[in-house]
Structures are given as structure tokens and as C-alpha cells.
Amino acid sequence: MNVARRGLIVANWKMHKTAQEAADLAGAISLRVVDHCASVDVVLCPPFTSLQAVHSALENTPIALGAQNLHWETEGPFTGEISAAMILTSGCRYVILGHSERRQRCGESDEVVRRKLSAALKAGLEPIVCVGETLQQREAGNTNRVVLGQLESALEGVPSEDLVRISLAYEPVWAIGTGQTATAAQAEEVHAALRKWLRYEREEKIAQGIRIQYGGSVNPENAAELFAQENIDGGLIGGASLDADSFAAIVQAGIYQ
Ligand code: PGA
């Protein structure tokens, strides 16, 4: 982490927890992390069906709410989809976009991610844009080409004044839910490449200010080493965010020392 950027720790609960279970977990997390929120931003992203319940559970706390996806259209015949305005009015400030599970399993292309990003920004949300390479791409030496390509495509047409509302998450696909974390050095190398791209293709100020989280099997044991890297500004936490004690320990590791 760098003192110039505030840590950002985001819980991605994926397709876990009913509304009541999610509210209970949010309450348990809140008790444990509320004192840390002066130093680090904490966000919980439950499934759509739990947004209202978690929003209520987080009332009067500094913990923010986020969604895991949205549709790029504002409204219309899109059965089963949720718009940016629906998310916003459910109490969300953030939205995760382009997660590899959606890219790989739900067929989301770079073009779809770009449209979703545009819709999120238009609605006033703070998008978290995920990028990451597969093991095959890494082994072929294509990591940077893949993640920078995803970044370039997502940010195409996004004006500089909107970029300040975006954060990035580097999530190597091979590290997600596998227990196989990228080493701190492997992650830092990609984070530095993302920041460098922003510096040369956009603006120095944007590159310096944008927060880049690492995601992929972060746990209380490896979080501190990852977050100690200059260009790693926090984490997008899946499995370990489903347990209040584990998540609280990771949040604590995200306080700039
Ligand atoms: P994980 O998931 O922490 O369970 O690996 C991270 C993510 O997919 O956001």
C-alpha cells in the first residue's frame, strides 16, 4: 500500500447467503470492523436478493454496500436482469464488474464489461473493474497482454473525470477459490503494470490515485504480505469474507502501517 491511497477491502459473497443469513453476517462483520473504518474502506457485496437486508444491517455504520453485477440498459424487456438505478436505490455505492466467473461462465465479453461500466458510471455508482489471466495465459507469458487488454477495453471512452470513481481488481483466474494465491511479488508485478499503463495511456494523477485490489484466495495469513506491496491497495475477498473473524482479520491487515 501507499500512504497516498486509502485501503479498500471488499467482500464478494458470490451466490452465498439468504437475506437473513446475509444480514446476520453483515452484523457480525460490522461489530468487528467498525473501528477500523476510520483507516480503511470496507464494502460488502451480497447477492441482489440480500441487498435490502444488508443495507438495513449496515445502517449507521461506515461500511458501504455493493452489488456483484448489473445490466447495461436502464430498463426494458430483460427478464432476470437488474439495472444500475435499481442497485443504487437499494443502497449500493459500489458494483463489481467483469468478474472472471461472469466472463468465463456467463459469457461476458470485454464489450459487455465496457457497456456495464458505462451504465454504472452514468448512474453514479463506483465500479470495481476486475481483470485477470487464466493459468494457460500466464504460462504462455501473456499475463500483462491479457490484463492490459481487458483494462484498455473496459476504459475505452471513459472520460478522466469518471476514472476517479473506478477501482480495479487484479484477480488471476487460477487463484480464485483455489487456495492458490499469487505470491506477493507476482501480484505486485501485475499491479505495477496496470498503474504504469494508466500513467502512460491516461494521466499521472489518475494512475497515482486509482486503487487496485488483489483478489484470489486472500486469507488472514497472506493478506498482510500482499497489502504491504506498494501497488496493492486492498483486496477483493471471496471465500474468506464469508466468515466474520477471517474477514475482520483481513480488514485489519488492510490498515496502512
Ligand atoms: P476467493 O474469491 O477469495 O474465494 O478466491 C475472490 C473473488 O473471486 O473475488
Layout of helices and strands:
Layout: E1 7-12, H1 19-33, E2 40-45, H2 51-57, E3 64-67, H3 84-88, E4 94-97, H4 100-105, H5 110-123, E5 126-131, H6 135-139, H7 143-155, H8 160-163, E6 167-170, H9 184-201, H10 204-209, E7 212-215, H11 223-227, E8 234-237, H12 244-253
Parallel strand pairs: 1-2, 1-8, 2-3, 3-4, 4-5, 5-6, 6-7, 7-8
Helix pairs in contact: 1-2, 1-12, 5-7, 7-9
Bound molecules: 2-phosphoglycolic acid (PGA).
Please explain how this structure is put together.
It contains twelve helices and eight strands. With 257 residues, it is α/β, with parallel strands linked by helices. It has one domain: Aldolase class I (TIM Barrel, Alpha-Beta Barrel). It has an eight-stranded parallel beta barrel with strand order 1-2-3-4-5-6-7-8, surrounded by five helices. Helix 1 (19-33) packs parallel to helix 2 (51-57) and helix 7 (143-155) crosses helix 9. The longest helix has 18 residues, at 184-201. 2-phosphoglycolic acid (PGA) is lined by residues 12, 171, 176-177, 215-218, 236-240.
Summary tags:
single chain; 257 residues; alpha/beta; TIM Barrel; 8-stranded parallel β-barrel; 15% strand; globular; binds 2-phosphoglycolic acid
Give me a quick take on this structure.
The protein is built from 12 helices and 8 strands. The protein has 257 residues and is an alpha/beta fold. The protein has a single domain, classed as Alpha-Beta Barrel (TIM Barrel).
- The SSE string, one letter per element, is EHEHEHEHHEHHHEHHEHEH
Shape, please?
globular
C-alpha termini separation: 9 Å
Number of helices: 12
- Structural domain tally: 1
Strand portion, in percent? Answer: 5-15%
Poorly predicted runs are: none
> Rg, please?
17 Å
Instruction: Please give the number of β-strands.
Output: 8
Please give the CATH architecture. Answer: Alpha-Beta Barrel
- What is the CATH class designation? Alpha Beta
Q: What does the average pLDDT come to?
A: 96
How much helical structure, as a percent, in the residues? 40-55%
Structural class of the helices, strands and pairings? Answer: alpha/beta
Bound molecules: 2-phosphoglycolic acid
Largest sheet features: 8 strands, parallel, barrel
Strand line-up in the sheet with most strands: 1-2-3-4-5-6-7-8
Could you name the CATH topology?
TIM Barrel
Looking at this structure, what is the CATH superfamily? Aldolase class I
